[in-house]
Amino acid sequence: MSKTERGIALVTGASSGIGLVTAQALRRDGYRVFGTSRRPMPDTADGIAMLICDVSSDASVQGVVDEVLSRAGRIDLLVNNAGIGLLGGAEESTTTQAKAVFDVNVFGVIRMTNAVLPVMRRQRRGRIVNLSSILGLIPAPYNALYASTKHAIEGYSESLDHEVRTQGIRIVLVEPGLTRTSFEENITRPDRPLALYDTVRANAEKLMRENVAKGDSPQVVADAIVRVANATSPKRRYTAGKAAGQIRFLRRFLPESFVDKNLRKFNGLPD
């Protein structure tokens, strides 16, 4: 396809933040873009068609895929961006709350992927970009459940890529660092808070706010996704931003004791 007609892209969680900026970047690059949000939204002025989709619902996911096919006839690129956060001590969340986070962050990705794979297989062509995180590479005190979902996405994506590569489909991970998006929008608080964690939880939230404010622009992540979308032979994973690249290097090549000590220092935890 020509640069002015790259293909059909579907971006979940495109109402704001990384998802919206990614949808806009793909549109500028020549893709016809469909974005999803949980609530009704008008199409954007720059030509992104917005559709309602709840990634925790099988019917909703299949419905949005069917709608894109009815309008465009194909899906060349899926960007699984929709997700929610959870900040607090791991034991402060009930298993019900933990399941809810996994239902969006992990099973939402699986639902969307399962819905588009038959389409891409018929086309003999397709690419799926899964938004992971540096928290899919390292421990994350007071973000244990969120980090667990991203670790799961890492294993799922890398394994699936081997399964579907011979079908003309690639699964690629993009791993952002801290990114300047709306902190409050997708962060959930524990559903059974314990007084034991009140101070450290407040400190963790303060640290996150400070670091998010100094983080990368969402455009950094969007640019990485556009590179992935257009790469002839994509790598299995891409970091987005300098800090993400540094953390990946530290985790991969330096002694575990060094990483552990520096992670505790970064999070303001005693040795």
Automatic annotation (TrEMBL):
<dbReference type="InterPro" id="IPR036291">
    <property type="entry name" value="NAD(P)-bd_dom_sf"/>
</dbReference>
<feature type="domain" description="Ketoreductase">
    <location>
        <begin position="7"/>
        <end position="199"/>
    </location>
</feature>
<dbReference type="GO" id="GO:0016491">
    <property type="term" value="F:oxidoreductase activity"/>
</dbReference>
<dbReference type="Pfam" id="PF00106">
    <property type="entry name" value="adh_short"/>
</dbReference>
<dbReference type="InterPro" id="IPR002347">
    <property type="entry name" value="SDR_fam"/>
</dbReference>
<keyword id="KW-0560">Oxidoreductase</keyword>
<dbReference type="InterPro" id="IPR051911">
    <property type="entry name" value="SDR_oxidoreductase"/>
</dbReference>
<protein>
    <submittedName>
        <fullName>Putative oxidoreductase</fullName>
    </submittedName>
</protein>
<dbReference type="InterPro" id="IPR057326">
    <property type="entry name" value="KR_dom"/>
</dbReference>
<comment type="similarity">
    <text>Belongs to the short-chain dehydrogenases/reductases (SDR) family.</text>
</comment>
